[in-house]
């Protein structure tokens, strides 16, 4: 199969076949990361720009490493030190990057739909690094890659997404991706943090943690998005932790070999207890490693779209 898309803006628009292609391509990319010299000339001469309007550690750094491992040149634009602070619009920033002949632009923005607008204004490939509470496609892809690697597949798995569903772009992208790949997706959390009519996306909704986590093969714990929330959505942090924080007691109702994921950064001791976060079921650090491999795969597929070339050694 050939990947023909110019951009990756969300998993809502990707087919199961395209998702599989990305995950399959990430496997040899992960092999590159285990070498003594983690670099191949595959994308030599190409340029990748990260344009982040919101803070990021994992997404930005993993994209920059992914580009460098494939031999591309990278440039990072921090909004705090860019012309955006002087009032430059996204459209004018897009024109500037277009004039610089960038090949790929990875954007994170607080406004839902910003990557889609950017993709219309530039000829470069655009990857959504997270737009508001809308989507975070590369996080969902690395989550699925991690699950597939550990479980051997995604079809038929019971995946519980636990926590602040309403404000989480990670949740929405995982829902789109996992349902297309044949998993049973459950969303578990308080009613005040649950989007209305979310069951229309093909998920099962649970407000009781015991029912929602029962027999789960995977639990994806979400960070509480305090920066996006209105006040009064739950009584207190302590109350939220008691009812929905993943601890050893709650873990007992899941499958014996359950995987515990978290997109990071973790509010340690709030949405997940330290003994679970550091315990044998957690694959949080492996998610970070796999994030680089998946983003390598995306860069490779986007810049080589329409071609079926082997990865250069």
Describe this structure in words.
This protein has helices at residues 16-33, 58-69, 90-99, 114-121, 137-151, 169-180, 209-213, 237-244, 248-251, 274-277, 284-303, and strands at residues 47-52, 73-78, 104-109, 125-131, 158-162, 184-188, 204-206, 218-221, 259-261. α1 (16-33) crosses α5 (137-151), α1 (16-33) crosses α11 (284-303) and α5 (137-151) packs across α11 (284-303). The chain contains eleven helices and nine strands. It has a five-stranded parallel beta sheet with strand order 7-6-5-8-9. A four-stranded parallel beta sheet has the order 2-1-3-4, with helices on both faces. The protein is α/β, with parallel strands linked by helices and 313 residues long. 37% of the residues lie in helices and 14% in strands. β5, α6 and β6 (184-188) form a beta-alpha-beta unit.
Q: What is the SS-derived class?
A: alpha/beta
* Main sheet properties: 5 strands, parallel
How do the helices and strands follow one another from N- to C-terminus? HEHEHEHEHEHEEHEHHEHH
The residue fraction in helices comes out at 25-40%
Question: How many DSSP E strands?
Answer: 9
Give the percentage of residues in beta strands. 5-15%
Ends: how far apart? 21 Å
What would you call the shape? globular
What's the tally of helices? Answer: 11
- CA-based gyration radius: 19 Å
Widest sheet, order of strands: 7-6-5-8-9
Which blocks of ≥5 consecutive residues have pLDDT under 50? none
Mean pLDDT: 92
């Amino acid at each position: 199969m050939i990947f023909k898309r110019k951009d990756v803006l969300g998993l809502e628009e990707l087919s199961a076949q395209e998702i599989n292609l990305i995950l399959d391509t990430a496997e040899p990319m992960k092999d590159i990361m285990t070498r003594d010299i983690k670099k191949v000339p595959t994308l030599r001469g190409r340029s990748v720009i990260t344009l982040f309007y919101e803070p990021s550690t994992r997404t930005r750094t993993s994209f920059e490493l992914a580009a460098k491992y494939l031999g591309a040149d990278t440039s990072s634009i921090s909004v705090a030190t860019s012309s955006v602070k002087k009032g430059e619009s996204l459209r004018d920033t897009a024109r500037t990057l277009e004039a610089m002949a960038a090949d790929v632009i990875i954007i994170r923005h607080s406004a839902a739909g910003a990557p889609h607008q950017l993709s219309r204004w530039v000829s470069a490939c655009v990857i959504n690094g997270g737009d508001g509470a809308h989507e975070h496609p590369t996080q969902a892809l690395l989550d699925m890659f991690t699950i597939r690697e550990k479980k051997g597949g995604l079809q038929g798995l019971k995946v519980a997404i636990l926590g602040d569903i309403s404000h989480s772009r990670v949740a929405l992208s995982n829902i789109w991706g996992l349902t297309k790949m044949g998993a049973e997706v459950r969303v578990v959390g308080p009613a005040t943090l649950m989007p209305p009519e979310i069951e229309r996306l093909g998920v099962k909704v649970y407000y009781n943690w015991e029912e929602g986590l029962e027999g789960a093969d995977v639990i994806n714990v979400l960070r509480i998005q305090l920066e996006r929330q209105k006040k009064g959505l739950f009584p207190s942090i302590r109350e939220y932790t008691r009812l929905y924080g993943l601890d050893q007691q709650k873990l007992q109702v899941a499958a014996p070999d359950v995987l515990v994921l978290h997109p990071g950064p973790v509010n340690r001791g709030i949405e997940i207890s330290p003994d679970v976060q550091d315990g044998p079921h957690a694959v949080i650090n492996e998610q970070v490693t796999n994030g680089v491999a998946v983003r390598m795969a995306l860069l490779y597929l986007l810049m080589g779209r329409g071609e079926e070339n082997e990865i250069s050694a």
